[in-house]
Request: fold
Amino acid sequence: MTAILFDGIVQGLQLSLLAVGITLIFGLGGVLNLAHGQFAIVGGLATALLISSGLHPVLASVAGIAAAGGLGIAVDRTLLLPAYRFRGEERLLLGLILTLGLSFVIDGILNSAFPEFSLTMQLPIAMMDVAGIPMRTAGLASSAIVIAVFAALFAFLRWTLLGKTIRSIIENEVGAELCGIDPGRTRTLIVCLAAMMAGLAGVVQGLFSSLGSEMGPEFTTLALLVAVVGGVRSIDGTLAAGILLGIVNAFASHYVGAYVAYIILLSAAMATILVRPAGLLARST
Amino acid sequence: MRVEGLHAGYGQTPVLPDVNIEAHPGEAIAVIGPTGAGKTTLLKTIMGMLRPTRGRVHYDGRHLNGLRAFQVARLGLAYVPAERELFPGMTVLENLELGAFRCKEQTHLERVFELFPRLAERRRQLAGTMSGGEQQMLAIGRALMGGPKVLMLDEPSTGLAPKAVAELYRQLSKLKSAGLTIVLTEQQVALALSLTDRAYVLEQGSIRLSGRSSELAGDPAIRKAYLGVA
Reply:
């Protein structure tokens, strides 16, 4: 039981890390990024390529995450420009089509250029005892990384001027512009940051088990699910939703198998949305 | 600030066919007129939130055509829309800090707190949980944080209790005495005319009448149409 719960939390944290980028890009840019899972794969596979060329795994991970960030900036500054010319629903719809197309292109390139290619990283010590319970070191390490990243993200948003600027655009883009804040520049920064966090989620997947070149669509779907359950504009909601769905998924996979687990996962997501349509941690007004 | 032959509107519908107005440094002007006359459209077009189809906005020796709202704001034109456009989930202090986003001046916060002591008391409160009058004060305070040269207010009295309106106008008159240029649209015409030096009457997108506020307040047509005096 405890082992499954722990597994669920580890997976859930990783899902939150992936999904928080969707939340940030949607909150700030009004675009639901359907290529977000692919950002994670690009980051992870870039890391794997660098490791196989002889680079130290830690340095390779940093470079792979930076590559995902670079891809994010490129997408924001080129592909999404037509979408940013519109507002509201029109931007959302155009953004959906553009990022969906991007996800097909990235999947196609990765599947043809790197078929069967994957990122698998091994830690020197495989198991550790925590409070008498044997746990996988990779799970502990990846959870520690994700928790540290979330702590840094919360601190950044709460206490720095740039972080407050980001929150202000999420709250009210018109108000932010009236304060002299350039939403476009802040948006590029956020898309880069979101893509880097996706890249890290990809690396974490390689640490925890294995990240394959074909996993993009699955990652995007899971991340979207988590972001929607979390309320799609709330960062703490996304964190909570990731952990919740991670735990549901772990128990379902263990007791009924991976395919049925997806159905259970979707049912759990629908149930949460029905009970809390504005998001898991939404303030009641 | 000078607006010349401004033609603007939404989509294919022109709201302002041709408008000329002017505000000199240190002057307070009012734009009055019935609902739907184009007062908000005028301010939004000056601010760069709407693109004019013709005409120019001159400000401080340059024209503002083609600039976006955040660029206009950085030049020292502050706009307080009727919707206030605050950040409801952020504290009063955070809202004010964001108003000073481009400006390293520390004294502005003290001046805003001096003008609106209520904001100093409520600095940790979330903006969305305050009363209408307090939110209006916060919106003006946020606009002042960037140290603007011109303050544009769109119907600041709308939705406020009479007591809050009176307090607001006392504070605006302090700002005027301090030398700030003020452009104001208002439904409460008597109040607007008492605060400002000059006024424009905007009807169906055109300036029908303009002149000194004190003279307009005595004009029989204005008194009949806007001041409720037969």
Summary: Chain A has twelve helices and four strands. The beta strands of chain A are 118-119, 127-130, 133-136, 211-212.
